[in-house]
Structures are given as C-alpha cells and as structure tokens.
Amino acid sequence: MRRWLAPLLALLALPLLTGARDPILVPEVSQHEVDLQQGFTGTELLLFGAILTPEGSRAAQDYDIVVVLKGPTQSIVLREKQKVAGIWINAASTELRSAPAYYAIASTRPIADIVDDKTAAIYELGLKWLQLSPIGAINPQEQIRFSEGLVGLNRHNGLYREDEGGVQVSEQVLYQARIRLPSRVPTGMYTAETFAISKGRVVASASSQVEVRKMGVELAIARFSQNYGFAYGLLAVCVSVGMGWLAGRLFALV
Description:
- By secondary structure, the protein is α+β, with helices and mostly antiparallel strands.
- Helices cover 33% and strands 39% of the residues.
- The longest helix has 25 residues, at 229-253.
- InterPro entries: CHP02186-rel_TM (IPR019088).
C-alpha cells in the first residue's frame, strides 16, 4: 500500500504545482482619468506592467501578452441605406445589445498565432470575436453583414483598433503597449484587460479602470442638456435661427 501512496500523492499534487507556476500580472495605466476639455485632440495611453511568479520573481519563461482596452457597452440600432428611385432610404435594420463604444487590442504577435478560435471568442480577443448580441431573431448572414458594417465604421472613426505586435516585453518581466484615444472618444468607464498566454492557454489575467469624462464648458453643456432637455432644444433652435439671420445680414452688406 505504501508503495502506491507516494505516486498517488504526487499525481494529486500535480495540478497544484502546475497552477503555482502560472504567472501573476501587475498592470498599470499611465492615466486613470482622461478629461475631455475644449480643444481636446486625443491622447495616448500607456498600458504597462510586470509579469511575475507567485513568489514575486521574474517569470521563468516567455509569455504572449494581449492588452484590450474596452469602452462602455451600449445598445445600438444599425440601419442599412438603400437607393430607391435615386433616393437613399433606410432599409433593413437590427439592434445590438452590447456593442462597445470603444475597443482596442494590442498583442505581442497576431492573435491567430497565439490562441485558437474558441479561446479568442471566449475572451473576445479581436474585432472578429466581439460578442455584439443582436436582439431578436436575425439571419446569420445578416448578422455578419451588420457586424462587419459596425466594425468598419468604427475603425474608420478611430474607435476600433487592432495592433498586432503592439506589445513589447522586456527581459520576460516588463510589458508595455500604447493605445490611441481619438478626439471623439465617448465618455464613460473603460476597462483595460491584460492576458498572459502560454501554449494557447490564458494562464493569467488582470484589469484596471480608466474613466473618460467631460470637464469645463463641455461638462456644463452636457449636464444642461440632460437636466433641461426641452430648454436645451429650444435654445439650440434659437441659436441656429440667430446664426442664420446674422449670416444673411452679413452677406447682404457685402
């Protein structure tokens, strides 16, 4: 009996020993608060951190690092335009339950070389694997078309980004990635997630928060529009009419 006891205990302890060797990520962001003020032209966030063993020493092997910065999710209605008798009109439409307002991913290598499709879909590693969750029944081909349309539009506006090779790892310890926020970046709470991957398996993950908020005049206008919607709309109409009248007077004098 004793002859089998030692191998059995070693076998039972193997998963624990394997888990103990998994790394620990210590993430940080250069800015935890991004203020949108008048004249804001965008900014660049530095996402960095360390890859350590549970004992706090340098990792004993190389890991692929993937960094994802995701903005607040929102429900959005997508509509296709169709030309009828020379006029563009709204045609088919669908509503997505959880489209991120902003999404950026950076990795040490192409995602396809790091994980398989199943793992990429589980962790939403890449624009191809975003879980947009359409509301109601929709044809799979239509879902693909609408999803690709949303991704293409947001990529054009700088709100969706992919940077394969955008993460640098130094001495198996320190990693860093730079992610650009455009001038039209939406406000809200952003999540910066870091994944350490080995042999196609996510062995560690960690996250931190970034708040994008309006300040100064922009904040005052936003609060006024939210709290006094009717007055804000009336004021906007009056300003538009006044600017039109002023422009007409100026052109009349020329």
